[in-house]
Amino acid sequence: MSGFASWIGGALGWTLGGPIGAAIGFAIGTAVDKATSKGLLLEPPKRGSRQRRKRTDPVYEKRRRRISTTQKKAQTKSGDFEVSLLVLSAIVMKADGEVTTSEKNYVRDYFVKMYGKERANHAFQLFNGILKKEDLSTRQICQQIQLYMDHSSRLQLLHYLFGVTKADGHVSEEEVELIETIAGYLYINDRDYQSIKAMFYNPVDSAYKILEIDKSVTNDEVKKAYRKMAKKYHPDKVQHLGEEHVKGANEKFRQVQKAYEQLQKERRF
């Protein structure tokens, strides 16, 4: 459990509070209970211990929360993005009432690819605990993420969630509708939502949707749209999350390039 505890310590920042903190706390408790049942942890101190619980002043706590919500949005760190992925993945996977092995494997494989096997194992241990929590509030969790996470990181979250829905080869309407709801809660506009969705579902005129333009635009407008989207989805936008996420963001960037090349070929310019 020491490795797990160390990983948790390094992973949590602004996620310690709010609904995400509650979900993570539940998951940690589940992991601790499991370890205790196997004799991996010592018994907790008895009630006669000299340790005292700190009293919480409700007035102070209310004021602290009010101040925190008005503070400038902090730049998201890798660990905060990581646990946000886990919580939102759990919500989406449970949308259709069934969590498949393929979906769970997608999460594990993604974390192995991004963070390495050891860190992925710790993340998946936490993820299993989150899946067991029944009362996850999608709206409250997304509000916390939107409050602290920059726009580029939220777009990366959305891209990942679409990958989760396709992991088992079956995409339910409930899952897609939930992701659209999540996008709204995260303040991601419809054009950005449709752009990322088109990277996975290849609708008619998907190249136009990815570049967020209509078929009626001129060639010059296609070029302008490409430059705009290439800038929006450039991997450097999530560089603050760590090198592992820069690699993950390359997929969105490649899709934009592919869409532009397709239109170049179709329009012959």
TrEMBL record:
Coiled coil: none annotated. Residues 206-268 form the J domain. Residues 39-74 are annotated as: Disordered. It holds the Pfam family TerB. SMART domains: DnaJ (SM00271). PANTHER family: CO-CHAPERONE PROTEIN DJLA. This is TerB family tellurite resistance protein. It comes from Kordia aestuariivivens.
